[in-house]
Amino acid sequence: MTPARRARQDRDPQTLDIYTDGGCDPNPGPGGWGAVLIWGDQQHEITGGELRTTNNRMELTAAIEALSTLKRPCQIHMHTDSQYLRRGITQWVDAWKANDWRKRDGSPVQNADLWHALDELVAPHDIDWRWLKGHAGDPLNERADRLATLARRQVVRKAAKKGKPKQPATSSTGSGMVSVHCCGSSIGSPGPGGYAAIIDDPQGASRELSGGLPRTSNNVMELTAAIAALESLEPRSKVKVHSLSMYLVQGANEWLPSWIENGWRKKDKKPVQNRALWERLVSVMDRHQVAFTGADRSDPAAQRVRRLARSEAKRRAEKKRR
Is this prediction's pTM over 0.70? Predict the structure, then answer.
């Protein structure tokens, strides 16, 4: 592309309509998201899903993934049937950021990792957020809903095909220990990132979970991997978390008590980075008996989970280049 043509494109943003939807069944549980992007006479569809997630996370992910496909500033009519998504990004997010990702009552913002990613992605664009009633006959909203449903079903089918349960089957009453290997990875900081976890329950069953974000950091993905794994377990599980990340292991084992006591500030009085994720980790740790330990790099599970996380990061980097 010539410099003159690029300059003309920068002056004349592309206009497009985006329809997004996401959901779970049950909630939380297997979920899917879908998005339909329309510009001129062209239409593009994207979709995806996760084995363990929530309705709200899928709604946010649909918008994040749709915006991450764009290569330059655009004028966008964003259509969603989620008031949580529309109100969050148009009314609440500025106050959340100003309050260090906490709500008015002082509690941490749920899904702060996704809100942070979405807030960065909307910045270059001129977006008109439009709410529409779901299942009211709008053909493109129905199509986004159908994409999300198909993605969720595909996640469930893949899990069943690999012998994974639809719902986590870890026993909370047994005396055995759940073993979790987790890893996060990013290409650049910030940059496309992925996380993964391998969960081995006391009965010998093993399952994997993974995901990622188009713009994140390695530490965010490390935290997200541990959180996702622990959130997938039955309450009061005994868990040993293996990680190559000293940021995660030392944070969980050594730093958290002083951070909490000092109002989420470090010894140098600077605010703790990724506070919302650390608070989410503390919350999920309270539901279990958890021990964090450094992973053995030669362990096949550690090698496998690193490959999974790196693969998720690369997949999002490839999406961004398209």
Answer: no
